[in-house]
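Open question from group meeting: does this chain pack into something compact, or does most of it stay loose? Before anyone orders reagents, we agreed to write out a predicted structure and look at it together. Recording both the input and the output here so the notebook holds the full record.
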Amino acid sequence: MEKDVKKKLKIECFKCGGKSHYAFECLSKKKDKKTMQVTWSDSESNQSSEKESNGSEECTNFIAFTACVNEEPLLKEASSELSESSDSNDDDMSFDTTYDTLYKECLSLK
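Structure tokens returned:
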């Protein structure tokens, strides 16, 4: 156990020159990390930079977008399409008979 402590004390950080930690564990490195700010236009970026330099101004300008979908017209359109397709029962009948014929042929091949 004592060897581990001595070994840890010999470790030197290349970032800050401190002892007992590596550069990837260095607290000063973590403090240096910057955040990225994304804006819609350059003018917003300049305004936010000015606010940051002024000190402790708080951002209170928020916008929320919502949407509402009315499904009734879609349902009416779908039901009208269904009623139009039900008029073509002849196509359905020919499909059914063709399917039955193919099914019987498939069974006979086994």
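Observations to bring back to the group:
The longest helix spans residues 89-109.
The mean pLDDT is 69.
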